[in-house]
Amino acid sequence: MTDIIEAYLKKVLHQQEQVEIRRSEIAQLFDCVPSQINYVINTRFTIQKGYLVESKRGGGGYIRIIKVQVLDEMDMLNSMIDIIGDSINETDARSVVHKLYEDEIISKREAKLMLVAMDKSLYTGERLIDNRLRSNLLRTMLANLKYEEPNKRKADNS
Amino acid sequence: MTDIIEAYLKKVLHQQEQVEIRRSEIAQLFDCVPSQINYVINTRFTIQKGYLVESKRGGGGYIRIIKVQVLDEMDMLNSMIDIIGDSINETDARSVVHKLYEDEIISKREAKLMLVAMDKSLYTGERLIDNRLRSNLLRTMLANLKYEEPNKRKADNS
DNA sequence: TATTAATAGTCAAAAATAGTCAAACAACTA
DNA sequence: TAGTTGTTTGACTATTTTTGACTATTAATA
Q1: Going by CATH, does the domain composed of A2-67 fall within 3.30.56.130?
Q2: Which parts of the sequence belong to the CtsR N-terminal HTH domain (chains A, B) (predicted)?
């Protein structure tokens, strides 16, 4: 089942760079429970595989899958994410950002923004907690630098 | 429905810098209850998104939506910093970042980095505390965008 | 000035979505 | 066969939108 739904979505994505579905409709179409769709998405449309997923609940809700282009810096970023681990202090975090800047993976402005976010004074004051929060933030930022969304179309809403 | 009404109003605002409507008329036009219009306005035309709303009740009442105009980048950043105040929730913070991106004050990558840092899941879980931390971080980031450092000289400290 | 009509605003309940998580099940593997 | 891994299911949760009863404000009229 998972494979069938995956194939269906990929077929659409082969022609368009994004799909938007209504979870319940797809579930009905394939005669499965709605949460099966989440399973398919969580296992087959991950960022590692080059997909970005957005969704909205409530009336007019949807799930949107976007094919993204994975960048060359991916390996570098992945290994940095590994190195960071689940906790990092401000000094080390700054070094990571500096290195990214030196390696021209991020611009100066981007580096400044990231450094601001690494600043101790912004956090709670509990060292252990802060180091975890910081690691979370830094790793998520790096993860977001790994890919690039397709070009925006002219008649973009949002 | 909300999206449709939003699109309608934005279309008008694309040509004029303000719209004035009669709530009941628009509700009738789109066949929805009048309070739906308030919902659209409250969720889609906030100050964080760059709109001002004025209204009057009673005979000849109206709702007026005005697109705020700012002169330049510095102005925009300053007014956003003002709007943020000392506390901001995730939704509003996202609106601010989005607006800066739309107005080409920040790049898409910068926007992504900033959005990551606004994410609720990153914080402590205490709403009031989180909103303060988020405001601090966002305002500091914006403040850092206001100026550009001079070119690095050889004997650069920092 | 007091009353009524004509507006718009608020708020909370209901409806319409999607997400999470763990238990049951299935398919493989040592 | 026992253990491991991947899949399916459904009960429960979270979020967003829609709706309508009630309130507030302003203008028109008596």
Answers
A1: yes
A2: 1-69
Mind listing the pLDDT tens digit for each residue in A27-44?
A: 999 999 999 999 999 999
Q: What is the mean pLDDT of each run of 10 residues along chain A (158 residues)?
A: 96 96 96 97 93 96 96 91 91 96 96 92 82 90 91 43
Distance B10 CA to C7 C1' (A): 24
Q: How many Å is the maximal CA-CA distance in chain B?
A: 70
B73 touches chain A (CB under 8 A): no
Residues 47-106 of B with CB under 7 A from strand D: 56-61, 91
Tell me the HSE value of B92 on the side-chain side, using a 13 A CA sphere. 20
Say yes or no: B43 contacts chain A, CB-CB below 8 A.
no
Q: Give the three-class secondary structure for B119.
A: coil
Q: Residue A40's Cα: distance from chain center in Å?
A: 17
- Domain regions of chain B by residue span: 2-67, 73-157
Distance CA B117, CA B19 (A): 34
CA distance linking residue A103 with residue A83, whole number of Å: 17
The yes or no reply on domain A73-157 and CATH 1.10.1200.150 is yes
Q: Which nucleotides of D are covered by protein (CB under 7 A)?
A: 6-11, 14-21, 24-28
